[in-house]
Task: structure prediction
Amino acid sequence: MNSRQIESWALRVIDCVKRGQPNEDFLVELKRDWIDEAKAARRIAGHANAARGENILWLIGFDEKEGVDCVIGANTADLASWYSKVESFFNELAPRMIPLNIPVDNKTVVALLFETDRAPFVIKNQAYGSPGGGSVELEVPWRENTAIRSARRSDLIRLLAPLELLPEIEILDINLAATIGGKDSEGNYHSDELRLNSELYIVPKNRERVIIPFHLCRVEFEIYGIPTFESNWISLNPASGINDKPGSLTIESTRHEIIINGPGKLSLKAAAEIPSLPEDAKNCDIRISIYLLPTGANRPVVLTKILPYPKEKSSASAIANFLK
Result:
């Protein structure tokens, strides 16, 4: 995730709290100030382990209880010394951190993005070996709601299993088009939309069948300075064949899911209604993030690509062919 995406995520959370809506994003932690390093290490480890591979975001200098005055501001100079001490409480490996200072209301909120794909993360018991320090040398923390506890065996199974289930997926080709709203050749009305067409190659990690339901997939479109918007329609199908040869012998699909029995090429189509955009936004690039979640996995495969905003628009009368 790049700086622009981190800032966009943080600003969405801040705007939400300012509107009086509580932060309900499990992947986000809000802190008024830098907390004790040992306590922070345990909370970060527990949060990262429970995220199961998803990035997590901490915002420092932000108090949800203050409502519209939630932006308190943080001392940015404290970060370097603070996190070096936090890392010392981890055993072998700490989550990779990407810091970003975000100006809001003439103050600075420090956003800390932690990459969790190398979980599980283990914390040292600093009292181990000293009188009254107990017999436990290491702990795998786990976040449940807002509390931190030691991980159970079932937690670790859920943490490690998705990494084995996720297939490898590569983008072979991708293009983006914009359509002008109106009626198509079949008389159906369509709004202004972005339409994504992509060819992917998928390789399962093992011999088990991979099933990806369409309702567990989404495509996000991000333009700098504009709230991220999502696809309202997505489909996956086996790649089209050429010269009487099938596109794939290992992939089949229904109206609701795609079924992968082995390595093969597939086609992804998605559409998103274009929100109201300032004219200069149409001169920017669009960051496209494709999320595909197989059944049984707790996190999706995420594919990203940056494309220019489409300069030419097709009419709604051409949409019917895209939907087939």
Summary: The longest helix spans residues 3-18.
